[in-house]
Design goal:
8-stranded mixed β-sheet, 40% helix, hydrolase, 4,5-9,10-diseco-3-hydroxy-5,9,17-trioxoandrosta-1(10),2-diene-4-oate hydrolase activity, EC 3.7.1.17, AB_hydrolase_fold, Epox_hydrolase-like
């Protein structure tokens, strides 16, 4: 009887999982069949001898307060997940610029491109120049925090304030883990499925507690795996994983002179290449309850807001706590 009950439970779980994942729709490389929350614009430009398109949203407030904020997405995301943040910022009078980096979201997926955080920052600055925006507040989440850091170091005169929300790159991964070649990373990316993505998000983002409001951010990346374009997306993912590993920003936090806020979910354990580190090292990586404090000490005059028992995605998991910290800093 015990084994029969276990078999029934496994069968029911399989049926629920099958139904759950069957709702995910295939998405092409440019997300042409996925509607963003705001009007999407494209800036075309030539970079590294290639004609590229960089998508961005420009959310203008009804009553402007004269301030502009730019929201930079993480590696497993695109600009769409800033929807609620952008709406609330706009309601408070901020103009909100939300780019999709090259290789992400609705932007071009070049197959022969030398990615770097400096290149991504240069591309991002070209959007602001095109829009004739001279001063911005910059908010970067996850990999977007590494882009935001490099952007601030390259264009300190442009950045009025800097906010880093659970940024990766608070430690130097290449000193902790074995290098994975781009070809190896590509093969690993090709193995991703809706199920592997959900398991990853449950572990690092949501503490194994799934809620309906998390589903859209799984659908976006999981939908790619179901489309024939996925190898293009996987290749870009491998290229950007490489720069995260090989282009640390941790040694340059001390050079940031811009007023900075760190919003840190202390339950987060995200660390690139953790599975390639020695087993005794793995538990020491991605300890955000320690990394947040260490980073605050490195950035002179910075403010740290720790969100207890919160994972990698504060602006999705505990939006009100995230918003209060953000708005208190920029109002």
């Amino acid at each position: 009887m015990k084994y029969f009950k276990n078999a029934v439970i496994i069968l029911l779980f399989s049926l629920v999982s099958s139904s759950f994942f069957s709702q995910i729709k295939p998405l092409d490389a440019m997300l042409t069949n996925y509607e963003y929350p705001f009007t999407v614009h494209f800036k075309t430009f030539n970079s590294q001898n290639q004609d590229l398109k960089m998508a961005y949203m420009d959310v203008k407030p009804k009553t402007a307060n004269g301030k502009t904020i730019m929201l930079l997405h993480g590696k497993n995301f695109n600009g769409a997940y800033w929807e609620k943040t952008a709406k609330d910022l706009s309601d408070k009078g901020f103009r909100v610029i939300i780019p999709d980096q090259i290789g992400f979201g609705k932007s071009s997926k070049p197959q022969n491109y030398q990615f770097s955080f400096a290149q991504l920052s240069t591309n991002t600055k070209s959007i602001l120049d095109y829009l004739k925006i001279e001063k911005v507040i910059v908010l970067g989440h996850s990999m977007g925090g590494m882009v935001a850091t490099r952007f601030t170091l390259m264009y300190p005169e442009t950045v009025e304030k800097l906010i880093l929300e659970n940024p990766i790159g608070l430690e130097d991964y290449k000193t902790l883990a074995k290098y994975q070649t781009i070809d190896e990373a590509y093969q690993s990316e090709l193995k991703n499925t809706a199920e592997t993505y959900k398991n990853y998000q449950l572990k690092f983002y949501y503490d194994n507690k799934w809620k309906e409001e998390y589903q859209p951010w799984l659908d976006l990346i999981a939908g790619w795996t179901l489309h024939k374009d996925y190898p293009k997306v996987a290749w870009n993912a491998a290229l950007t994983s490489d720069i995260i590993f090989n282009q640390p920003v941790v040694y340059e936090f001390k050079n940031i002179k811009t007023l900075t806020l760190l919003i840190i979910g202390t339950r987060d354990r995200t660390a690139i290449a953790k599975d390639h580190a020695p087993k005794e090292i793995q538990p020491t990586m991605g300890q955000y309850q320690e990394l947040g404090k260490k980073t605050q000490q490195q950035i002179a005059g910075s403010k740290l807001v720790e969100l207890e028992n919160v994972g990698h995605l504060p602006h999705i998991e505990v939006y009100n706590q995230f918003w209060n910290a953000l708005y208190d800093f920029i109002k």
